[in-house]
Amino acid sequence: MKKITIYDTTLRDGAQGEGINFSLSAKIRIARCLDEFGIDYIEGGFAASNPKDMAFFDEMKTVRLKHAKLAAFGSTRRARLTAAKDPGLAAILRTGAPVATIFGKSWLLHVEKVLKTTAEENLKMIADSVRFLKKHGKEVIYDAEHFFDGYLDNPEYALRTLQAAADAGADALVPCDTNGGRLTSEVARITAEVRARFPGAALGIHTHNDSDLAAANSLAAVEAGATMVQGTINGYGERTGNANLCSIIPSLALKMGAQMACGARLGNLRSVSLLVDEIADQRPPKNRPFVGESAFAHKAGMHVDAVSKVSRSFEHVDPAAVGNERRILMSELSGASNVRLKTGEMGLVFQKNSPAVKDILQKLENMEKNGYQFESTEASFKLLVQKVLKKHVPFFDLQGFSVVVQKKDGTSKATTTATIKVSVKGQTELTAGEGDGPVDALNSALRKVLRRFYPAIDSVVLEDYHVRILNPESATQATTRVLIESSDGRERWGTVGVSENIIEASWEALVDSVEYKLFLDEHRRRSSKK
């Protein structure tokens, strides 16, 4: 079992992704999280690039990491300066980080056209920089920028750049697919040739995802001899991103038998992924491998039937191994197995040929024909089941509502007032609420009525509101589907409404959201009494 070192560059390379901007406190929080998870190296930032990165290193001097080593990133010395007088190398020393990661040029195209220096001077820049940092007691990781492109252009020169770093005392050599354009077969072949040239060196791999191959290329490099993998949480990074450690780490641990410090904490992988998303203010894609909400979601009836009998028939790893869980989706493609498993989560047990299962399926199919969608709106599905089984007791009944939007002139802001009349526990209530729009006003009015009877609804927060036009060819008469995501701080749920009238569709989804909260609380109370 090969021992693999994981090097995280979320705080540096990941922060270069479009829309990603970490505050100082956010960077520290992420660093602590990565350390707890068992990441071996945490690259904190480009030492000479901006004051915020330097402030991070200053702050980290007071933070005690349990496992990870902190690395400061920078470049080799400039062509016309000595290492001792290079401001970039001096900045690395000022960080106080025990590890210095520097990049140098491997591709003559960059040496001659970008740096505008000679091939021999570039080799001296690499060697001088590594030797200088080693002299000051740093562990030095040398990132060979554009190595694979440079190797394909001139293999002997690319290898000479690595030799310069190795001879100067670099602790690790890391070939980089900086443009992200190399095929997996190329990365595997070239990494094997580098390993043969430097049999005793610690060899790493750093890939970008421009061809959607970063994770595959990283794993191929490990198979070819690399023992360090660089990447970012969730694959954040410039352009299309870096190698995604949330895909690489479980593949190494569960499929390649690699030994890693974070392997013992693999069950925390999804929570690490979500935390970084939250801090980065990014909505996580549902279809992310391993850690995504849909990574172990099953929709087709035949698949659900198979996975309920033998989980590995449609799951390549155990969801719990990466901190995830299996989800059974409900749609027109669902079969009886989907319904039985899904209702089983509600504490309802049906036999294989139960008429109730057929009734639920029929209702589900009819509603989806009319535009409803229950894949991401499980709360509406659970309420639907209660209604089909005639077990649903409404917490309140709508007797009517009206919404008035007023705009006095072309420059004034529109105001919205909603009036609703509902019956709650035998009492009829009429009230009004104001909001930024019709849905906000209806939500305000509904809460105002229900708060006296059900104070718990104050904990419900509408997390997301999504509208989709189902038949745009009908223009303003088109059918609208509204999806609402809500949370009470303990659970998160989705509801759906459909109508040609967007306000009516919104109301339907809003009512389901509130009713599900009350249904949830009632279920919790019953469970606590058992």
State Rg. 29 Å
Low-confidence stretches: none
Distance between the termini: 48 Å
CATH superfamily of the largest domain: Aldolase class I
The CATH class designation of the largest domain is Alpha Beta
Q: Can you tell me the number of structural domains? A: 4
- Main-sheet strand order equals 1-2-3-4-5-6-7-8
Strand content: 15-25%
Features:
530 residues, TIM Barrel, Double Stranded RNA Binding Domain, eight-stranded parallel barrel, 17 helices, 39% helix
Describe this structure as you would to a colleague.
- The protein is 39% helix and 19% strand.
- It is an alpha/beta fold.
- The protein folds into 4 domains: 5-280, Aldolase class I (TIM Barrel, Alpha-Beta Barrel), CATH 3.20.20; 297-369, no CATH class; 370-392 and 459-530, Double Stranded RNA Binding Domain, CATH 3.30.160; 396-453, Double Stranded RNA Binding Domain (2-Layer Sandwich).
- The two termini are 48 Å apart.
Summarize it:
The protein is of the alpha/beta class. It is built from 17 helices and 16 strands. The protein folds into four domains: 276 residues, Alpha-Beta Barrel (TIM Barrel); 73 residues, no CATH class; 95 residues, Double Stranded RNA Binding Domain (2-Layer Sandwich); 58 residues, Double Stranded RNA Binding Domain, CATH 3.30.160.740.
